Model the fold of this input.
Amino acid sequence: MLTRQNRNTILIAVAIFVVTQTFIFASIPNNTDRDSVAILVKSGTGLWEIADKLKKNGLIRYPALFVLCSLAYRGRLLAGEYELRKDMSIIEIVAKMGRGERNIYVLKILEGHNLYNIAEMAEKSGIMGSDEFLRLARDPGFLKRLGIKADSLEGYLPPDTYYYSREISTDHFIERIVKKTFKNFAKEDIKRGMENLKFDTHKTLILASIIEKEARLKEEKPVISAVFHNRLKQGMSLDADPTVIYGTGNFNGPITRSDLSTPTPYNTYKFPGLPKGPICNPDRNSIMAALYPASVDYLYFVSKNDGTHVFSKDMNDHNRYVAMYQRAKNAKKQ
Done:
């Protein structure tokens, strides 16, 4: 007759044997096929549902064994998109999902990028198609949900590097990016600058976006900002080439006389004041320059063809500088 101690010893031995055999069996690769399959696990998905999806995609044979092994992680498999090979064992799959080794997509928004640039980058990175991005960026319902009183997200996507994982939808991903803009505009220095100028967020982004496209150097941004502020105060048109380019969509080649005469809502040669919306996504330096212009009385500037500008107070000086640097530019081409 077995004593209680002997029974316990046998039970422990059986348990160890079962666990060991389960681990060994779960460590055997499903097959020798090294093809990969992308598996999306959404937040809140149960273990049996995950197991069923894995089996349907030829990644495992025994759902119950997968669930059992997953419980070793206390059922804490992380949501996301996983690249899984068919020759992986159940143990390897569970370990990868338990550690959250998900596919991560990177979207890098550079200073001065517009919606078309970002749409192209979103497609190249595999996050979403360019047409899908542009539709979302102009969707009235989406814009209303974000509290943006404009016809697109232009200007509201701050330059930075963003990381996307497919457990969230693309619209929530874009929403997170936009929220960074509103977080930035809640900072005291920006709020104070807007109050002093009686600017709102949209107006600030419009002017900042023009400064972003006109200035290559950080130290020139407040001076270029001052030129635009001075012209606005005097009721002069801004005459900013980048706004014309944005309005016509002619992003390739030099600006033409036809472009300058095209009556788009962004043509600051034909219409006084600011254009209808931002023309790119500006960085913080451009935003601060828009709100804190330099204390100068310049009304004009022209490129010196080296990334810097020469500034002037009257048209005669400006025309002289234009002729000077245009000749230099043409001479370089010859």
Q: What stands out?
A: The mean pLDDT is 89.
